[in-house]
Design a protein that fits this description.
With 226 residues, the protein is α/β, with parallel strands linked by helices. It has one domain: 3-Layer(aba) Sandwich (Rossmann fold). It contains seven helices and ten strands. The strands form two sheets. The chain has a six-stranded mixed sheet with strand order 6-7-8-3-9-10, sandwiched between helices. A four-stranded antiparallel sheet has the order 2-1-4-5, with helices on one face. Helix 4 packs across helix 5 and helix 5 runs parallel beside helix 6. The structure holds adenosine-5'-triphosphate and magnesium ion. The site of magnesium ion has 3 residues, from helix 1.
């Protein structure tokens, strides 16, 4: 479970400091499916980056499973990230010269897993996301939805408890986006905490809870009724 208390984030220094998150409080329990919405520039990605240990808050306390994360140094943050978080982004961020299987394997390269173990895990995850027949394809040989499936398989490779997806359907047509949301829903049913950012109500409707940010604060926090 994650708890954020009075989280502030500002960019820049001195008189040029720009506040982005302005004292935000948020608790997300294990196994929740949360959609974060709000206007462009309201701080959604900034919040996701803090939740995912890609960035640190300027003020406030973020604790994960009761442990205050603020004290963690870069190594510790990297470890927390590797152990707990799988990231999915709008632009997929696949490596263009690696095939699907190798892309999924990349987070394991420094893990100590053998080549065979890496390959087996990548292949089973690609099968899970419905790409069993595309393992050898390069990203350029895959559709947008298939690329996002590869990215989701890659996000799963370290068995994260939390999937953070920043506009995972933003680059996809609505039918393909719906398929990606079905996949994220399935992962949530299997017990993963899923947190997405989206601008679209139809996408947010897949979540159980919607949080709306405005100017760096939560202005709405509601359960989605089926
Ligand atoms: N590294 C940075 N340095 C300076 N300012 C930043 C940085 N990252 C974000 N910002 C600023 O913080 C504010 C919030 O950005 P953020 O990316 O969190 O917004 P967002 O809600 O995700 O918007 P969008 O819907 O457009 O993705 C913006 O005004 C942005 O310009
Ligand atoms: Mg953003």
């Amino acid at each position: 479970m994650m708890k954020l208390s009075n989280i502030k984030k500002a960019y820049g220094a001195g008189s040029l400091t720009v506040p982005v998150l302005r004292g935000l409080d948020l608790e997300i329990g294990d196994g929740e499916f949360v959609a974060i919405m709000g206007p462009s520039g309201s701080g959604k990605s900034t919040l996701m980056n803090i939740i995912g240990f890609l960035d640190k808050q300027t003020e406030g306390v973020y604790s994960l499973n009761g442990e205050d994360v603020k004290a963690a140094n870069e190594n510790k943050l990297a470890r927390l990230r590797n152990e707990h978080i799988g990231f999915v982004f709008q632009q997929f961020f696949l490596l263009p010269r690696l095939n699907a299987q190798k892309n999924v394997e990349t987070p394991l390269i420094y893990s100590g897993a053998s080549k065979k173990e890496r390959a087996e895990r990548a292949r089973s995850l690609l099968e899970k996301v419905g790409l069993g027949d595309r393992m050898g394809h390069l990203p350029s040989e895959l559709s947008g939805g298939q690329k996002q499936r590869v990215a989701i398989a890659r996000a799963l490779i370290n068995h994260p408890s939390v999937i953070l997806a920043d506009e995972p359907t933003g680059a996809l047509d609505s039918k393909t986006g719906a398929q990606i949301m079905e996949l994220l829903t399935e992962l949530n049913r299997e017990g993963k905490t899923v947190i997405i950012v989206t601008h679209e109500e139809e996408i947010a409707a897949y979540a159980d809870r919607v949080i709306v940010l405005r100017d760096g604060l939560i202005v709405e926090d509601r359960m989605v009724t089926a």
